Amino acid sequence: MPVATEKQIIEVEQAANNVWHNYYKDIFSPEQISYMLEKYQSRKALRKQLSEGYMYYMLLADDKLAGYMCMMIKTEYVFLARLYIKAEYRRQGLARRAIKYVDTIFSNPELGLVHINKIRLRVERENSFAINVYEHLGFYKIKSEDTDIGGGFVCKEYIMERQIKSN
Fold first, then answer.
1. 136, 129 contact by CB (below 8 A)
2. Are 43 and 10 in contact (CB under 8 A)?
3. pLDDT, position 167
4. pTM for the whole thing?
5. CB 71 within 8 A of CB 81
6. What pLDDT does residue 78 have?
7. What is the rounded distance in angstroms from the CA atom of residue 154 to the CA atom of residue 152?
8. What is the per-residue pLDDT for 70?
9. Is 164 helix (H, G, I), strand (E, B) or coil?
10. Secondary element (H or E) of residue 134
11. Secondary structure (3-state) at 123
12. DSSP H or E stretch at residue 42
């Protein structure tokens, strides 16, 4: 379900707080998690991203918010900027369904986006769980980057990609 209303923005912000504090506690310091949430997943940041063309989607399970994803169309690929699933909904195929949804959008000739034939994402190099999930979904590492995100913090990431699959 696309994120379009203020209520949905607030729900995504709350989900981000839940997921990031739970999931990243072994990768980042509490200070870095708080900094990143404010910079990338606060209501203000979400509104700004939506105005810049980022597309947020709520991932639902049994009509409840189970997670969210965000993507941005680039010249040669779609950038999957976020794919987060709450702990209680992991290992239920939601990531696979989210990626299949992206495949569906970008392989549909009626939408005029078939020139986009790759999905690209960034993942923390220490995030072995997510790396394994992405590799299982057909992504492969194309390079490694260290990115200064401000506030004295650095993200050490792999850039991964996979081909869009036609349905």
1. no
2. yes
3. 62
4. 0.92
5. yes
6. 95
7. 7
8. 97
9. coil
10. helix 128-136
11. strand
12. none
Say how many residues make up the chain.
167
Angle between helices 6-23 and 43-51 (to 10 degrees): 120
* pLDDT at residue 64, rounded to an integer: 93
| Domains of the chain and CATH, by start | 6-163 (3.40.630.30)
99 neighbors 119 (Cβ within 8 angstroms): yes
Q: Collect the ranges in the chain with pLDDT lower than 50.
A: none
User: What is the C-alpha to C-alpha distance for residues 92 and 133, in angstroms, rounded to an integer?
Assistant: 12
Q: For residue 101, count other CB atoms closer than 10 A to its CB.
A: 14
Residue 158 near residue 123, CB atoms below 8 Å: yes
Query: Can you tell me which residue has the tokens 């923390």?
Result: 124
What letter would DSSP give residue 37? I
How large is the C-alpha radius of gyration of the chain?
15
pLDDT at position 85 is 94
Task: Specify whether the backbone of 150 is left (phi greater than 0), alpha (psi in -120 to 50) or beta.
Answer: left
Q: Which among 17, 8, 23 is positioned nearest to 123, based on CA atoms?
A: 23
First to last CA, the chain: 20
What integer best gives the mean pLDDT of the chain?
Answer: 94
DSSP tally for the chain: helices H, then strands E: 5, 6
165: helix, coil or strand? coil
